[in-house]
Write a structure and sequence with these properties.
- This protein has a single domain (33-184), classed as L,D-transpeptidase catalytic domain-like (Beta Barrel).
- 30% of the residues lie in helices and 25% in strands.
- It is built from four helices and eight strands.
- Strands 3-2-1-8-4-5-6-7 form an eight-stranded mixed β-sheet, covered by helices on one side.
- 34% of the residues are buried.
Length: 185
Amino acid sequence: MKVILKIFIFVSMFLHAAFLSFAQTAETLPQMKNPHIVIKKKARLLQLFDGEKLIKTYNIALCFAPEGDKEREGDGKTPEGEFYIFTKNDKSKFYLSLGLSYPNIEDARRGLKEKIISQTEYDAIVKAIDEKRMPPQYTKLGGEIYIHGGGSQKDWTWGCAALKNENIKELFDVVSVGTSVKITP
């Protein structure tokens, strides 16, 4: 009986120590008052800020043509500029996803000037952005740009930013619809 008790105590202590070690490495992000995201395309980094304070940096994968700003549907580029999260999708094909408000007003102006979109499409984009809603996703400018899971080992998306699943889970849990996202070259 003493041997069994000693084994039980040893196993209990081992499991407790293992749990504490895991709990210390399983980082949870703090509650944030003013979260926002900066994506640095060339560096393949996504930075999460709370106000001016950098909270965490994640490695990301981009699209198959990462150089330059997105110009039109199917060009394989990740857009650059100021956006916001218009939706949180917990049923994403790529684990979890955060929808970005592409095209933005700047993209719509360019598209109208270059006759890529119509005045009606331009007006619909501007109205959606002004109301902080999802802009039209099926114009010749492209759409359906997300931050999502699926892996960050190499560039593979059609214009999105991809993270490891555990990283998009962290991000998904702390940001809300309306969070600003800046994408830089």
